[in-house]
Design goal:
The complex is a heterodimer of chains A (151) and B (424). Chain A is globular. Chain A is built from 3 helices and 13 strands; from the N terminus they run βββββββββαβαβαββ. The mean pLDDT of chain B is 97. Classes of the chains: A alpha/beta (151), B alpha/beta (424). Chains A and B meet through strand 3, strand 9, helix 1 and helix 2 of A and helix 2, helix 8, helix 10 and helix 17 of B.
Chain lengths: 151, 424
């Protein structure tokens, strides 16, 4: 693995396209896996699972950075409905490939990448500005606190 | 992905627009996974029903529009032909007979019935249960399936030795029309071997304890493959049903092995199949207590709703509940819903179990459950259930506190209106 490249306070990670397209937005990062059905509210785009660290937080228009999917097979159908309801994440970055995570991303139509060359859960923090160029498998991170990104 | 000539023909639209859209989705999905090809399947279990308020706008455009968008991820509405392979409907949101007891508007019940009439005629078998393996869909060892319903998927892989990933509403729609699903994950023998060794150090016998073990384990191993050894007493369909449902709720477990019991693990060596053991776990009294505490979020002991039957009850569970209720009356403050597949409800009716439960004031429902329907009896403030899966999901879905315990503790709560359960 190569170290992340810092360019003008930007960190660049490389990975693999799951769903094509380019999008950017503010990162929302969680270390907890996400349930679709029974774990999110598909009308508001919020996490509702009782013991989840993002409980009550909305991923609408965010770049959602998470370890992967868990729980019900209704995962894809619920992320699908967030798109129909206009509350889907703008882009997604996840770590562990599963059928739920893959299909959920495919039907949400949001640019999505995985298999990054560094752990996105460590490198990216909530509030960072993240550009996902899924077609090229590139993630560009601009740290929220500029001083923190000096290396 | 490499396609066969027949698959290429479907993708090119030579078999009509619906199969073209289905292949297009399977291509996008397969490439997202990193799959190299598709595999033929003749066993699909999915969700094709239109029973929620959120699909009303699509229903107004017709059932082809519902299937196109929700089962094929196609914004273009295409005419949906008959299913190409054996396909069944899993659990739905509405009991076709008892929707008024659920509190569901007549209009929504009518919507589900007309959807069933439409999709039934296209060859989707309306089992309407989360446990198709209880009512006639029992795949054989090695059979490639495309199933939804996480509790059924883990049962299919682990207990039956058939092969499926946790599919979704869209991939099962595409599979039903094409007879294909990505050849990835649990379809491949090498991916079915154990990763974690679990030593069960406390006696696990009744379904509450199988649920606690599954709930604790799923949260730790997430989507890995545990191999369970130790004090697992008298494994059975109902115990594995509860164990798997719990492990697939707190985590994403889709496969496990019990050496000497499940079909791909004659012994521990076969369960791991040469895999390096990446984690060793021990389940003892402290772990059991942790799972119990995590599942019990209620504090108020007055219980107004008892829910039994997630995953849907087997006939011997209905018999047990009927026996516990026989000649007694539920508290006037407490309602009880008992859920079982419609085919088994017929048997329960014929045996007199339904009458025994109804005479006590309970209701025997089919086709649905409170987590799927999002309906509990009106005014419910505190729920008691024997299901770790419902205890996990109901606080999020209905925003209500839940007590989790044995069937006996739950029935007792129904009779007295008070929760006196606890870990014994």
């Amino acid at each position: 693995m190569t170290a992340a490249v810092h360019v003008n306070n930007k960190i660049v990670l490389h990975g693999r396209k799951v769903v094509g397209g380019v999008a950017e937005g503010e990162a929302l990062v969680t270390r907890d896996t996400i349930s679709g059905w029974g774990g999110i509210n598909e009308r508001e785009g919020t996490v509702i699972e009782r013991r989840h660290e993002l409980r009550g937080v909305s991923f609408k228009d965010k770049v959602l950075v998470f370890p992967g999917a868990k729980g019900s097979s209704g995962y894809s159908a619920y992320f699908h409905m967030t798109r129909l309801n206009g509350v889907a994440p703008k882009a997604m970055i996840f770590v562990k490939m599963t059928t739920k995570a893959a299909l959920g991303a495919v039907v949400t139509h949001s640019p999505t990448v995985t298999d990054l060359d560094q752990d996105p859960l460590t490198v990216i923090e909530t509030g960072d500005w993240v550009k996902v160029d899924a077609d090229r498998g590139i993630v560009e991170i601009t740290k929220r606190v500029q001083a923190k990104s000096a290396s | 992905m490499k396609l066969t000539d027949a698959e290429r023909a479907m993708l090119d639209g030579r078999d009509g627009p619906a199969k073209q859209k289905a292949m297009d989705l399977l291509m996008r999905y397969g490439e997202a996974l990193g799959a190299e090809r598709l595999v033929a399947t003749n066993n699909v279990a999915g969700a094709f029903n239109a029973s929620t308020p959120s699909v009303r706008a699509l229903v107004a455009k017709g059932f082809d529009a519902v299937f196109s968008e929700l089962n094929l991820d196609s914004q273009e509405v295409v005419p949906i032909p008959k299913m190409a392979v054996n396909t069944c409907q899993l659990i739905t949101g509405i009991d076709n007979d008892k929707w008024r007891t659920q509190g569901i508007p007549d209009e929504l019940a009518a919507q589900q019935k007309s959807a069933e009439k439409h999709f039934g005629a296209l060859g989707i078998n309306m089992f309407a249960t989360c446990t198709p393996y209880q009512v006639g869909n029992v795949p054989v060892k090695g059979e490639h399936c495309a199933w939804m319903e996480s509790s059924a998927v883990i049962y299919c892989n682990s207990v039956l030795g058939a092969r499926t990933n946790t599919e979704g509403k869209e991939s099962t729609g595409a599979a039903a029309l094409t007879g294909r699903i990505p050849y990835w994950g649990y379809h491949i023998a090498d991916n079915r071997r154990g990763t974690h060794l679990v030593e069960v150090d406390v006696e696990v016998d009744d379904i509450m304890d199988y649920g606690l073990l599954g709930y604790w384990l799923g949260e730790i191993v997430q989507e890995e493959i545990p191999v369970l050894t130790g004090k697992l007493s008298r494994p059975s369909l109902i115990k594995f049903k509860h164990f798997g449902a719990a492990a697939a709720s707190s985590g994403g477990v889709e496969m496990y092995h019990v050496p000497g019991v499940t079909p791909e693990a004659r012994d521990r060596d076969e369960a791991f199949g040469g895999n390096k053991i990446v984690g060793k776990l021990r389940y003892g009294a402290a772990e059991r207590k942790l799972a119990y505490d995590n599942l019990n979020c209620a504090s108020e002991r007055d219980v107004d709703f008892v829910m039994l039957g997630c995953p849907h009850n087997a006939i011997e569970q209905i018999w047990l509940i009927a026996s516990l209720l026989e000649g007694k009356k539920l508290s006037s403050n407490t309602q009880m819903w008992v859920h079982t597949p419609r085919a088994l409800r017929e048997v329960a009716e014929r045996n007199g179990y339904v009458k025994m439960i109804e005479d006590a004031g309970g209701v025997v429902m089919s086709d649905t459950c409170p987590a799927i329907s999002r309906y509990a009896p009106k005014g419910t403030r505190v729920i008691a259930t024997d299901s770790a899966k419902q205890a996990h999901y109901l606080p999020a879905i209905l925003n209500l506190p839940v007590w989790f315990g044995t069937v006996k503790q739950c029935v007792e709560a129904g009779l007295t209106g008070r929760w006196n359960g606890g870990l014994q």
